[in-house]
C-alpha cells in the first residue's frame, strides 16, 4: 500500500543513499581521528600543565569516538529511511503496473 507518491519515494531513496555514504565516511574519518574534523569536537580546555596532557588527550579521544558513533547511528537511521523509501518506490511501481 503506497503512502507517498513515486517522486517522493525516489527523492527519499536518493537522499537516504547519500546520507548513508556521507555519514558512514564521516564516522570512519572520526574513528581514525582526522585532524580536519577536529573543529567539530566538543569543547575541551587546553591543559595548563604538562601533567594534565594525558587527561586532555583522553578527552579528545572520547570526543572523536563519540562523534564517530553519532555518525554511524545517523547512517543507520538513514538505512531505515532507505528501506521505507525502497518499499514505497516498489509499491508505487507495482500499483501502476496492475492498473
Task: Give the SSE layout.
Blueprint: H1 6-31, H2 53-98
Q: What would you say about this model in short?
A:
The chain is built from 2 helices and no strands. By secondary structure, the protein is mainly α.
Average pLDDT across residues? 90
Structural class: mainly alpha
Rg (CA only): 20 Å
Taking pLDDT < 50 over at least 5 consecutive residues as the criterion, the unreliable ranges are none
Helical segment tally? Answer: 2
Approximate helicity band: over 70%
User: What coarse outline follows from CA principal-axis ratios?
Assistant: rod-shaped
The first-to-last residue Cα distance is 14 Å
Beta-strand level of the residues, as a percent range?
under 5%
| Main sheet characteristics | none
Helices and strands, in order, run as: HH
Q: What's the number of extended β-strand segments? A: 0
Structure explained in plain terms:
The protein is mainly α. It is built from two helices and no strands. The chain has helices at 6-31, 53-98. Helix 1 runs antiparallel to helix 2. The longest helix is centred in the C-terminal third of the chain and has 46 residues, at 53-98. The radius of gyration is 20 Å and the shape is rod-shaped. The model has no long low-confidence stretch (mean pLDDT 90).
Amino acid at each position: 500500500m503506497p503512502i507517498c507518491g513515486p517522486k517522493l519515494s525516489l527523492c527519499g531513496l536518493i537522499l537516504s543513499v547519500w546520507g548513508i555514504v556521507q555519514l558512514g565516511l564521516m564516522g570512519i574519518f572520526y574513528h581514525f581521528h582526522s585532524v580536519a574534523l577536529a573543529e567539530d569536537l566538543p569543547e575541551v580546555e587546553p591543559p595548563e600543565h604538562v601533567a594534565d596532557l594525558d587527561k586532555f588527550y583522553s578527552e579528545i579521544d572520547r570526543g572523536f569516538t563519540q562523534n564517530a558513533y553519532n555518525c554511524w547511528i545517523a547512517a543507520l537511521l538513514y538505512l531505515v529511511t532507505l528501506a521505507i523509501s525502497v518499499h514505497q518506490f516498489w509499491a508505487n511501481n507495482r500499483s501502476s503496473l496492475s492498473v
